[in-house]
Amino acid sequence: MLVLRGVILGAFVVCTFASGVPVLMYHEIRTPNISDTALRRDLSCSPDQFNQHLDWIEKQEYITITSGQLLRIPLSKKSIMLTFDDGRKSHYEAASLLHQRGMVGVFYINSASIGTPEHLTRSQIIEMSRMGMEIGSHTVTHPDLRRLSRARLLVELATSKKQLQRLIYQPVNSLAYPSGAYDQGVISAAIRSGYTSARTTDRGVFKGRDPFRVPVIRIHPTTTTRDLARMVMKGYNK
């Protein structure tokens, strides 16, 4: 099918983005502090900024989806996936904001960090799941998966999945590679561990080519709604 923005071709309404589904990658929803490291500052998105992004998503009439829906919907459907890495405590407030708007998000959690300072508690994760948020795995301890032995790699992937499933009594089918580090061996281990998709940190929009190489639009503390619109429309990150 020929892809033209905003044009109806036959029975299909063609998307206003680059023939795929945008997947946004957030980390902390917090206002950066002057004492923050450069890395933590770059991983922060203020609550005001986050709300502006949600306002824009609503105005553009996007439907927020889970990873399971990402693999099932037609790529001509106007959908967007919001993802959150590391299980930070600010994700509970983010999930609450999404729930209030009738939206969903995918929250990737390191199972070893649950209940530790600055991270989500068990009860918060359970409540987020009951809100309709998807809980995904970010492994047990957030290692570079490429550097692990085969046995240790499978432990990181399978154990996190099992621990999260026991917590929320729901399947955990999606994975986010820690720091976006993966190779074919990691993909093979993810498949063996029972995952059906995995999110990377590679730039772009998801076009249905490989569910274990889902690309992202990375959100920075300086990402305005204008930036977001440009990246979603063009299908790449700055």
Structure write-up:
By secondary structure, the protein is an alpha/beta fold. It has a single domain (20-234), classed as TIM Barrel (Alpha-Beta Barrel), CATH 3.20.20.370. It contains eight helices and twelve strands. It has helices spanning 38-42, 47-59, 67-72, 90-100, 122-130, 150-168, 184-192, 225-234, and strands at 8-9, 12-13, 23-26, 28-29, 44-45, 63-64, 79-85, 106-109, 134-137, 174-176, 197-203, 214-218. Strands 3, 6, 7, 8, 9, 10, 11 and 12 form an eight-stranded parallel sheet that branches. It has a two-stranded antiparallel sheet with strand order 1-2. Strands 4-5 form a two-stranded parallel sheet. Helix 6 (150-168) crosses helix 7. It is globular. The two termini are 28 Å apart. 39% of the residues are buried. The model is unreliable at 1-18 (pLDDT under 50).
List the helices and strands and how they pair.
Elements: E1 8-9, E2 12-13, E3 23-26, E4 28-29, H1 38-42, E5 44-45, H2 47-59, E6 63-64, H3 67-72, E7 79-85, H4 90-100, E8 106-109, H5 122-130, E9 134-137, H6 150-168, E10 174-176, H7 184-192, E11 197-203, E12 214-218, H8 225-234
Parallel strand pairs: 3-7, 3-12, 4-5, 6-7, 7-8, 8-9, 10-11, 11-12
Antiparallel strand pairs: 1-2
Largest sheet: 8 strands, parallel
Low-confidence stretches: 1-18
What do we call the CATH homologous superfamily? Glycoside hydrolase/deacetylase
CATH level-3 fold name: TIM Barrel
Give the name of the CATH architecture: Alpha-Beta Barrel
Structural class: alpha/beta
Percent of residues in β-strands: 15-25%
Which percent bin holds the helix content? 25-40%
SSE pattern: EEEEHEHEHEHEHEHEHEEH
Number of strands: 12
CATH first level: Alpha Beta
Shape: globular
How far apart the termini lie comes to 28 Å
Q: From the alpha carbons, calculate the radius of gyration and give it in angstroms.
A: 17 Å
What is the domain total for the residues?
Answer: 1
What is the helix tally?
A: 8
Mean pLDDT: 90
